[in-house]
Write a structure and sequence with these properties.
The protein is built from four helices and ten strands; from the N terminus they run βββαββββββαβαα. By secondary structure, it is α/β, with parallel strands linked by helices. Strands 1-5-4-9-3-10 form a six-stranded mixed beta sheet. Strands 2-6 form a two-stranded antiparallel ribbon. A two-stranded antiparallel ribbon has the order 7-8. The model has no long low-confidence stretch (mean pLDDT 94).
Length: 197
């Protein structure tokens, strides 16, 4: 089955719900060479309440519960959020810099937001991610690999890898071996199809 998602000339995913976040700016260089996977839930460990969407759109009521108080005034975003059902929401065009990784470093390069795409999974470090989320994440990653040739299996990392000691997501519950195997299988199929044409 072919990937239903593609990245258009406007750097938005086809087939994803478009939710524009103001929390983005121009990339300092025209480079997309890293894919950072995150996990998020608000309040921690709670899902399906739409609060992440409100966080990314600066409409979150941080006074609603003490667990949200430390988010007052915080301005963050990701390019994509995949909820527990596998629904894909895009907040920032991929050619723009989303504010997701914060203080970060990868292979000696700081400020990973400059050259990374950030994908958030609705989840928690100690809660298994849903099969639908892995399928959607593989679809998104596959579409990104096709559109941005500097992205490949070796450039897919977790937030904890670019911000060690500061961040732990997507956490021990994320099935890296299964996810990377799925991406590798898709890459082989793309090569096989290309070889037949």
């Amino acid at each position: 089955m072919s990937n239903p998602l593609t990245v258009g000339p406007d750097h938005w995913l086809s087939g994803a719900r478009r939710r524009t976040s103001p929390n983005c700016d121009e990339r300092p260089a025209n480079e997309i060479s890293l894919l950072v996977i995150h996990g998020i839930s608000l309040p921690p460990g709670q899902f399906g309440d739409g609060l992440v969407d409100r966080l990314f759109s600066n409409t979150l009521d941080c006074s609603a519960t003490p667990q949200l108080a430390d988010l007052a005034g915080v301005r963050v975003s990701a390019h994509v959020l995949i909820d527990r059902s596998g629904a894909i929401n895009q907040y920032v065009a991929f050619d723009k810099r989303a504010w997701h990784a914060g203080e970060s470093c990868w292979r000696g390069r700081v400020n990973c937001n400059d050259f990374a795409v950030g994908i958030e999974l609705e989840g928690a470090d100690d809660v298994a991610y849903a099969a639908a989320q892995y399928a959607a994440l593989a679809d998104v990653a596959d579409a990104l690999f096709v559109r941005y040739p500097a992205l490949h299996l070796g450039s897919v990392v977790g937030h904890q890898e670019v911000a060690p000691g500061r961040k732990t997501d997507p956490g021990a519950s994320f099935d890296w071996s299964g996810f990377l195997a799925a991406l590798s299988s898709r890459a082989r199929r793309r090569v096989d199809v290309a070889d037949r044409h």
